[in-house]
Amino acid sequence: MKRIIVDAYAKINLSLDVLRRREDGYHEVEMIMQQVDLKDIITIKEIEKGIIIESNKKEVPTDSSNLVYKAWDIICKKFNIDRGVYININKNIPIAAGLAGGSSDAAALLKGLNKLWNLGLTKNELMELGVNIGADVPFCIMGGTALAQGIGEKLTRLNNFSNIYILLATPDIQVSTAYVYKNLNLKEISVRPDTHKLIEYMEDNDIDSVAKKMVNVLENVTIKKYPIIQEIKKDMINGGALGSLMSGSGPTVFGIYNNEKLLKETERKLKKRLSKVYSVKTI
């Protein structure tokens, strides 16, 4: 039986700005998205009918609420495929953590089915399918570093910003993205990221300036409800991070380091009170 294995990488937001609320209820955003080497591993095998989803983590849904189900369904309907698939998700990315774990799994499945069933889809065609699954899916297919606009689906590839030391820490709380956006008051945002200046710093590989100028406007809502996020940011800065930010709508916090020894020391300290702490690099 043919088996395809695909890596599904996490993402962080080096900046996140919300420009306006659209008439359809979605928010217009502008953000810099960056993949890191924390990954889920997706194993795909063809079966006769239907879909079976299994995972090493019991928190991972194995029904139609999982985005990989939606990815399989979209491919089958578009190409009139009457074949089933077995999917195993070896889950390492924290769930509902602002790291696009579910979106990355769905992106990996689209890429895997494209190969398994010899569909011949280009990366851009896969990205066009991905936007119907979730706003982060096209970026997870593209990978690397990108400017995301619109609802996150309009992507511009940026210069590679790889091999940067990153510390991730996810507190054991559940953050609802819908709650965060609903409670975001655009008129109250006093500090916004200078996205285009950040891109210039990245192009110059000026890591220090990138780290110090990162802004995520969603912190205004999430930190107010969950002060532990601010505490983790402070711990990272005190531990030698050049800068620290919440990723997405949270609750994951990341720090950028230029010294691996300081990163490892902060990682050791944070692990004393948090179970999900990861030393990673940008890719």
| Largest beta-sheet characterization | 6 strands, mixed
Please report the total strand number as a whole number: 10
Q: Tell me, what's the shape?
A: globular
- State mean pLDDT (0 to 100 scale): 96
- How many domains would you count in the coordinates? 2
Helix content: 25-40%
Cα gyration radius (Å): 19 Å
Structural class: alpha+beta
Strand content: 25-35%
Instruction: Report, as a whole number of angstroms, the end-to-end distance.
Output: 32 Å
CATH topology of the largest domain: Ribosomal Protein S5, domain 2
| SSE arrangement, N to C | EEEHEHHHEEEHHHHHEEHE
Q: What is the number of helices?
A: 10
Q: If classified by CATH, what would the architecture of the largest domain be? A: 2-Layer Sandwich
CATH class of the largest domain: Alpha Beta
Fold and architecture overview:
By secondary structure, this protein is α+β, with helices and mostly antiparallel strands. The protein has 10 helices and 10 strands. The protein has 2 domains: 3-157, Ribosomal Protein S5, domain 2 (2-Layer Sandwich), CATH 3.30.230; 165-281, Alpha-Beta Plaits, CATH 3.30.70. 33% of the residues lie in helices and 29% in strands. Strands 1, 2, 3, 4, 5 and 6 form a 6-stranded mixed sheet that branches. A 4-stranded antiparallel sheet has the order 8-9-7-10, with helices on both faces. Helix 2 (101-116) packs across helix 3 (123-130). The longest helix is centred in the middle third of the chain and has 16 residues, at 101-116.
